[in-house]
């Protein structure tokens, strides 16, 4: 009887790729398992355009990869056919994700052909290109994403871009103030407050104000300058987030956490707590 030849079916890895879902792929991207990600999208190219929920939006695998900051993983997905200009429901491209979560990938994405739109020009402080985008009809108030152009300029700390947008009629929205406070960029915070940004406005989802954002910012003179500016503008020390945390609560927790660590950081946290507690007493 002739010997049976084993059927050449898919390997275990190929079977795993065939069973892949968008959520499983997102897990592989988060783990930076480049080999498994490439195998999955090669077996099922449709996965490149599937989305999962992140930060209240729908992100493709490329958006997720950019957020990890792993350029090798990003290049692997681009090589497999991912599109640099893919947009989420809120209009964010992978470049927008890089601006907020992985600044080190901004220039590499531009080098690979990402469009330098108004959001990127505002963040990078490229006032000439930003002005050209505005002259071409891009809104100075909101771009096509969920963050205003002013918000991107505030996040990037671009004073010139902030001034340009305000001069062109951009509304000093509370989101931009929170982004400048979180960075923290004192000069931008001062500009936005002077333009009328509402100091006590709460984020609709988290309930965070600009003061909460500032207290969570990296320790240092810039953070203290921002907190002082917000307090001088009338920020409420006792205002709480949706989880019930005040700015003082957040500062105390951070101080307790860092007390056993670096002395410089610990002193900075204690200084912040003292500043906020003094403000609470005098109100």
UniProtKB/TrEMBL annotation:
Gene3D superfamilies reported for this sequence: Ankyrin repeat-containing domain
GO terms for biological process, alphabetical: protein K6-linked ubiquitination
GO molecular function ontology, one term from the record: ubiquitin-protein transferase activity
Keywords recorded for this protein, A-Z: ANK repeat, Repeat
Pfam families found in the cross-reference section: Ank_2
Origin superkingdom: Bacteria
Per-repeat ranges for ANK: 57-89, 206-242
Protein name according to UniProt: Ankyrin repeat-containing protein
Organism: Klenkia taihuensis
């Amino acid at each position: 009887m002739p010997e049976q030849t084993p059927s050449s079916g898919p390997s275990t890895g190929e079977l795993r790729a065939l069973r892949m879902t968008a959520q499983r792929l997102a897990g592989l991207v988060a783990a930076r398992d480049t080999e498994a990600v490439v195998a999955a999208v090669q077996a099922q190219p449709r996965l490149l355009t599937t989305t999962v929920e992140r930060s209240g939006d729908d992100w493709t695998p490329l958006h997720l990869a950019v957020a990890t900051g792993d350029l090798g993983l990003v290049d692997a997905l681009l090589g497999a056919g991912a599109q640099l200009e893919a947009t989420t429901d809120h209009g964010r491209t992978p470049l927008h994700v890089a601006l907020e979560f992985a600044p080190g990938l901004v220039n590499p994405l531009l080098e690979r052909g990402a469009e330098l739109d108004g959001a990127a020009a505002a963040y990078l402080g490229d006032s000439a290109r930003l002005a050209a985008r505005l002259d071409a009809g891009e809104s100075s108030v909101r771009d096509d994403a969920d963050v205003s152009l002013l918000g991107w300029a505030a996040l990037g700390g671009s004073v010139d871009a902030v001034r340009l947008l305000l001069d062109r009629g951009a509304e000093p929205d509370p989101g931009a103030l929170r982004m400048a406070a979180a960075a923290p960029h004192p000069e931008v915070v001062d500009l936005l407050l002077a333009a009328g940004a509402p100091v006590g406005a709460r984020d609709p989802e988290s309930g965070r104000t600009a003061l909460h954002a500032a207290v969570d910012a990296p320790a240092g003179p810039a953070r203290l300058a921002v907190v002082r500016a917000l307090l001088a503008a009338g920020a409420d020390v006792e205002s709480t987030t949706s989880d019930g945390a005040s700015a003082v609560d957040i500062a105390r927790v951070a101080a307790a956490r860092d007390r056993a660590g670096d002395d410089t950081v610990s002193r900075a946290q204690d200084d912040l707590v003292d500043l906020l507690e003094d403000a609470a007493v005098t109100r």
